[in-house]
Amino acid sequence: MLYDLNVAWSPTKEPLELQRTISFLSELGYGTIALNHIHHGPLPSNIVNPIPTSFQFPLPPKTVLLRRCTLVLSDPSLNHRLTALSSVYDILALRPTTEKAFLAACLNLSEHSIISLDLTQRFPFHFKPKPLMTAVNRGVRFEICYAQATMEDANARRNFISNCLGIFRATRGRGIVISSEAKSALGVRGPADVVNLMAVWGLGREKGLEGLGDNPRAVVINEGLKRSSFRGVVDVVYGGERKAFKDTDGGEGIKNGSGNGEKGKTKRKADDKETKADGTPQLSKRQAKKQRMEALKAAEASSSSSKNPSPISGSPAPESVDSKIKYQYPPPEALVVPLQQRQAPSPPPRPWLKQTLPVTALLLEPSVESKRRLHLLK
């Protein structure tokens, strides 16, 4: 899914022009669109979101509309209501105009998720890698709005390209969010054209695709977790309310909280114990458990006594286990053999060795051939 987190909105903008812009973005493949309201000056005490939640025209199918505020920041010490401002909008972005405000947005402030600069202006400071990479590691993204170059004059386009090169060099293409900031449908470009345009200005193709998909998606998810979860970890789910306890006798009974942190203020007295239908007092869980354990021990004792009855007169005593072992195995004295009676083990038979005559017998006894020759000589 493709994201465009900056579509210009103002209270005086015609709904028909806004409808054309949203429809054209949907046809180009952008599924999540954020309507941006730019706020100048200090924040009021009562912050109200002027962007309506519903419009008079129908939205394209499978299109998500978000409400965003971009605060123009010149002095970070004058705005103390950034937390209240971020809770009113879906996305909060800062547009610093001075070096002090830019460093504060990169290093100190934590309510925003995007730093959106007006790149058509010439800044009195340089983009250094250390503060920009610190902001990227903190989860803050830098926004590049391509409509600032396509809809302005040549001088603004020259400043835009120079500032883009400085940001790309300082961040090495990481943490970049690409948006349009289009005031009309003529300022919108397709995703392929945007990637090629960023490649001409110094951003790689892979980083350009991340700027249209992965990085803005991370911004939307993180902002949603900030507003709908507990400290960005556990999502808040409605679990119902606890019902109040009503006494059967018509009294007030025990007072339970309604789920908003209220605790029961009336304590239960020791005399107000419940009783059963037969009049016996209701036992506590500890007493009932103690009775069950005693009954279980009594049952085990009775079963063991029935299996092993006590010996009476005339009945043979049961044999013990030691006596069975005594007659089943020989005594240890029979296993001991004196040293004099021990015999060396005989060697195993070796049938493969043939019994031969000694060497002297072979030398003295004449062979058959010699006997035949002696017989012929005689």
Describe this structure in words.
With 378 residues, this protein is α/β, with parallel strands linked by helices. It has a domain of 212 residues: Metal-dependent hydrolases (TIM Barrel, Alpha-Beta Barrel), CATH 3.20.20.140. Helices cover 37% and strands 13% of the residues. The protein has 13 helices and 9 strands. The strands form 2 sheets. Strands 1-2-3-4-5-6-7 form a 7-stranded parallel β-sheet, sandwiched between helices. It has a two-stranded antiparallel ribbon with strand order 8-9. α3 runs parallel beside α4 and α7 crosses α8. The longest helix has 23 residues. The radius of gyration is 48 Å and the shape is flat. About 5% of the residues have low confidence.
Q: Which CATH C-level class of one domain is it?
A: Alpha Beta
Largest sheet: 7 strands, parallel
CATH superfamily of one domain: Metal-dependent hydrolases
Strand content: 5-15%
Tertiary shape? flat
Number of helices: 13
Low-confidence parts lasting 5 or more residues at pLDDT below 50? 247-259, 321-327
Strand order of the largest sheet: 1-2-3-4-5-6-7
Q: So what's the oligomer here?
A: single chain
Count of DSSP E strands? Answer: 9
How much helix, percentage-wise, in residues?
25-40%
Radius of gyration: 48 Å
H and E order: EHEEHEHEHEHHEHHHEEHHHH
The name CATH uses for the topology of one domain is TIM Barrel
Q: Give the N-to-C terminal Cα separation.
A: 124 Å
Structural class estimated from helices and strands:
alpha/beta
Architecture per CATH nomenclature, i.e. the level-2 architecture of one domain: Alpha-Beta Barrel
Rounded mean pLDDT is 78
